[in-house]
Amino acid sequence: MPSFTVFKGSKDGSIHESKTEKPELHGDQVFLKITASGLCGTDLHYRNQDMVLGHEGVGVVESTGPECKYLKKGDRVGWGYEHDSCGHCRECLTGNETYCPERAMYAMADLDQGSFGTGAVWREAFLFRIPDGLSDEAAAPLQCGGATVFNALHTYRTDPTETVGIMGVGGLGHLAIQFAAKMGCRVVVLSGSDRKKDEAMKLGAHEFIAMKGAKELKVSRPLDRLLVTTSAKPDWNLIAPIMASRATIHPLSVDEGNFEFPYMPMILNGINVQGSVVAARAVHFRMLEFAAQHKIEPIIEKFPMTVKGITDAMEKLNSGDMRYRAVLVPQ
Ligand SMILES: NC(=O)c1ccc[n+]([C@@H]2O[C@H](COP(=O)([O-])OP(=O)(O)OC[C@H]3O[C@@H](n4cnc5c(N)ncnc54)[C@H](OP(=O)(O)O)[C@@H]3O)[C@@H](O)[C@H]2O)c1
Ligand SMILES: [Zn+2]
Ligand SMILES: [Zn+2]
């Protein structure tokens, strides 16, 4: 019976080590040993919950259930936010299983395991083989952060002639700059301050705007698309005037409250607001291949997969000093 160490959140936000034991593998279940995990901004939202944290996992297959078809012991695989779906609803049948009404997602299902730990048991159908060109540590942050920004760009058909804005240079944002640049777009970065300018330009940005204290923003060309990857909702009054007509805005930040956008500018300029969540499996596979081919990798800071390592990484992320994704590595 698989058993492994896990790291959980708690009411007061402190991290706790615990053990999870699973029954014998059945169906297409895979038991894997975790080798690396990214720390996503969304994990900060759940550190006060009594649940195992982490959803940017990479590991090596230890053993497989009786109905596994293609994975075998020793294979390197990743997984992200979604662990299961019904397989027969309209969303599942059209390859949009991230919107399945019975989807099993992080913080909603399987609370006894995540990617902060030494092992996990997941369905083969929701695991992704890691291409040879990507290390475990580089591949981990792609499982949620990379998948989320690639999904917004790819699923909603970004064209290489577009000017794409990326707001927020964090875990998601620094990957989004690379994906959009490699897709051939002109990339405009909007960041809180100018502290990240040099790195953003090296990652492929063509223009960089520091927003601190600005009453209005100035871009050399209006944005055809904007990915908002800040950790809180932005001031949409600043954003509306820099959008091109018929532009698309992808709000990706997880936040509370309502979406309030200047109403007439949206109507008169035909602006489209398109929410989205991680990536369906077909898109996730493509993202990994695209990243391996174009050498798109996160800039990482490594921490040990221990109570202290997780606590330190979360504090650094929360303080705004992470450059740009923490990766936890079991000792
Ligand atoms: N929709 C989805 O499927 C999905 C998937 C994953 C994550 N998310 C959400 O996406 C957001 C970004 O995640 P992440 O992992 O990239 O987080 P992150 O690494 O913390 O990056 C967020 C960035 O937002 C900016 N920022 C920091 N504090 C801010 C504040 N108080 N107000 C506005 N901006 C602030 C900073 O960029 P600058 O220094 O450049 O300003 C920071 O680097 C989070 O809300 C996360 O929960 C959504
Ligand atoms: Zn995430
Ligand atoms: Zn379904």
Automatic annotation (TrEMBL):
<dbReference type="InterPro" id="IPR013149">
    <property type="entry name" value="ADH-like_C"/>
</dbReference>
<protein>
    <recommendedName>
        <fullName>Enoyl reductase (ER) domain-containing protein</fullName>
    </recommendedName>
</protein>
<feature type="region of interest" description="Disordered">
    <location>
        <begin position="1"/>
        <end position="22"/>
    </location>
</feature>
<feature type="domain" description="Enoyl reductase (ER)">
    <location>
        <begin position="9"/>
        <end position="328"/>
    </location>
</feature>
<dbReference type="InterPro" id="IPR036291">
    <property type="entry name" value="NAD(P)-bd_dom_sf"/>
</dbReference>
<keyword id="KW-0560">Oxidoreductase</keyword>
<dbReference type="InterPro" id="IPR020843">
    <property type="entry name" value="ER"/>
</dbReference>
<dbReference type="Pfam" id="PF08240">
    <property type="entry name" value="ADH_N"/>
</dbReference>
<dbReference type="InterPro" id="IPR013154">
    <property type="entry name" value="ADH-like_N"/>
</dbReference>
<dbReference type="GO" id="GO:0016616">
    <property type="term" value="F:oxidoreductase activity, acting on the CH-OH group of donors, NAD or NADP as acceptor"/>
</dbReference>
<feature type="compositionally biased region" description="Basic and acidic residues">
    <location>
        <begin position="9"/>
        <end position="22"/>
    </location>
</feature>
<dbReference type="Pfam" id="PF00107">
    <property type="entry name" value="ADH_zinc_N"/>
</dbReference>
<dbReference type="InterPro" id="IPR002328">
    <property type="entry name" value="ADH_Zn_CS"/>
</dbReference>
<dbReference type="GO" id="GO:0008270">
    <property type="term" value="F:zinc ion binding"/>
</dbReference>
<keyword id="KW-0862">Zinc</keyword>
<dbReference type="InterPro" id="IPR047109">
    <property type="entry name" value="CAD-like"/>
</dbReference>
<keyword id="KW-0479">Metal-binding</keyword>
<dbReference type="InterPro" id="IPR011032">
    <property type="entry name" value="GroES-like_sf"/>
</dbReference>
<comment type="similarity">
    <text>Belongs to the zinc-containing alcohol dehydrogenase family.</text>
</comment>
